[in-house]
Specification:
By secondary structure, the protein is mainly alpha-helical. The chain is built from four helices and two strands.
């Protein structure tokens, strides 16, 4: 890990998910962690689509849609959160990727000036 600025103060990160996906797919597609992540998410999406197809054949349309739509939205939320976390991990590991991410404004780093909440036991 090359960033040592977090020792002087807390940092905050803003990630542009659209640009982060683009950078991940263009520059880190050969990384096994990203390939496994995409394979897991694609598998989950295929399972949800398969269940939806079966559901539309067995149940009424309104009921099947009521079960399918939240599943697809949940899958998209997990993909969105996981990709942002993976993008930040890659950016903090590789200085060249970090510079590319900040240059393209996919990642914005700022000093967190708000006091954090009290932690239990302190």
């Amino acid at each position: 890990m090359f960033i040592s600025a977090y020792e002087t103060g807390p940092l905050g990160y803003l990630i542009s998910t659209r640009k982060a996906f683009y950078l991940l797919l263009m520059h880190k597609i050969r990384d096994s962690r990203l390939q496994l992540f995409l394979l897991e998410r694609a598998g989950a999406l295929l399972i949800i689509v398969g269940a939806a197809i079966c559901g539309f054949k067995v149940m009424p349309t309104l009921l099947a849609t009521g079960f399918c739509a939240p599943g697809v939205c949940f899958c998209a939320l997990i993909l969105w959160l996981g990709a942002g976390d993976m993008f930040l991990t890659f950016a903090l590991e590789d200085e060249r990727f970090y510079n590319l991410a900040t240059k393209t404004r996919a990642l914005d780093v700022f000093e967190d000036t708000e006091p954090s909440l009290l932690q239990p036991g302190s």
